[in-house]
UniProtKB/TrEMBL annotation:
One Pfam family in the UniProt entry: DUF998
UniProt entry keywords in alphabetical sequence: Membrane, Transmembrane, Transmembrane helix
Protein name: DUF998 domain-containing protein
Organism, scientific name: Microbacterium suwonense
Record field: transmembrane: 26-46, 58-78, 99-120, 132-152, 164-183, 203-223, 235-258, 270-289, 301-321, 327-348
Length: 362
């Protein structure tokens, strides 16, 4: 008994030391991102003073620099804390892992950049007429880079499917709020969210959909990773179906952003309905694969029924607007995904599991 207690104390001590070491590294990474942001921001904004908002604003250069530094922080952290993670994997598994890492890098840059744009848009309301010299803009860039870099560096230490889902939620909320604040049509909500992608400020919403599609596809990849850790090679065919369906759903959502409703309404509508259908298919496939979990089965049945009711209310009874329908569907799917990743966090071993097969389809 005493030896078992001592072993537990030893393990806990090792965990504490590891977490303290990670915190020290995160502090150093935050400081490094601050300095890089200060130098890069000052260099990019060098010259005369620039307005905080409006034409020639400092916000867009600050967002670009902060986004790039956040992406670099994630890459450095991944190489530092998870070196050789894919070395024991077959080629197909390593490729999926590497592509997912690239997608997460782009998403972290997007979240940081859009976060800066949203913060700038909010602050501009109370800082009208403010002009910043190059050093002032550099300090603003340094703060934004430190915040984004710390988030990205932490993600590189240990990125779970739950973290990725949270990143997706945050990105959708930040991007949509920014698009609402910069929308040229103040009554877009009477029709659909797609109206936010029209006009000179439409790039914000359309870009959000493209990056969100990338994140959805990456979430599917990480779901596949977790399912493989839990179920093993015997379930590879079903896992491949999960990954492919989520990837197709992500591509369909990206297509919604790449095909604005004011330019190509037909293809835009097809992509939007394809996104809905593919997300529902992905939800059902995951539920079937994890069929022993009664909680997930019940939640999926309720989800599908509520979405069917919402569709009937919108298109059959014309009680809901399309914008309200979209909000309901997205909210329900995100609620389902939140429950799923929490269940996986409980059930999935926190260790890599290289596949013994050359192909996921064999």
């Amino acid at each position: 008994m005493d030896s078992q207690v001592r072993a537990e104390w030893f393990d806990e001590g090792m965990d504490v030391e590891r977490m303290l070491r990670e915190q020290r590294r995160m502090l150093w990474a935050t400081a490094a991102c601050f300095v890089l942001g200060l130098l890069a921001g000052t260099a990019v904004l060098w010259g005369g003073s620039r307005p905080f908002s409006g034409d020639g604003s400092v916000i867009i250069p600050v967002a670009l620099v902060a986004g790039l530094i956040a992406a670099a922080a994630f890459v450095v952290s991944t190489r530092m804390h998870r070196p050789g993670e894919t070395s024991a994997m077959p080629r197909w598994q390593a490729v999926v892992s590497d592509v997912s890492a690239v997608a997460v890098t782009a998403a972290l840059a997007g979240v940081t950049g859009l976060g800066v744009l949203l913060a700038g848009e909010v602050l501009a309301a109370g800082l009208q007429g403010l002009e910043l010299p190059a050093i002032g803009g550099g300090v603003f860039t340094a703060v934004a880079s430190a915040l984004g870099g710390r988030m990205a560096f932490g993600a590189g230490i240990r990125l779970s499917t739950r973290d990725l889902a949270s990143l997706l939620f945050a990105f959708l909320i930040i991007g949509t709020l920014f698009a609402m604040l910069t929308a040229t049509d103040s009554v877009w909500w009477e029709r659909s969210f797609s109206e936010l992608g029209i006009g000179s400020g439409g790039w914000a919403f359309n870009g959000t959909l493209v990056i969100a599609g990338l994140l959805i596809a990456t979430t599917g990849s990480y779901l596949g990773r977790d399912l493989h850790r839990m179920l093993g090679d015997a379930a590879l065919r079903g896992i491949a179906a999960v990954v492919i369906t989520w990837a197709c759903a992500g591509l369909a959502l990206a297509a919604v952003g790449l095909l604005p409703i004011d330019r190509v309404p037909g293809p835009h509508a097809i992509a939007a309905f394809a996104t809905l259908a593919l997300l529902l298919a992905a939800v059902i496939i995951v539920t079937v694969l994890m069929g022993e979990l009664r909680m997930l089965r019940t939640l999926t049945i309720v989800l599908v029924l509520l979405i069917v009711i919402a569709v009937v209310l919108a298109f059959g009874l014309h009680v809901l607007s399309v914008a309200a329908l979209e909000a309901v569907v997205v909210g329900l799917v995100l609620l389902w995904l939140t429950t799923l990743v929490q269940l996986l966090g409980i059930l999935v071993p926190d260790v890599s599991r290289p596949s013994a097969r050359r192909s996921p389809l064999r």
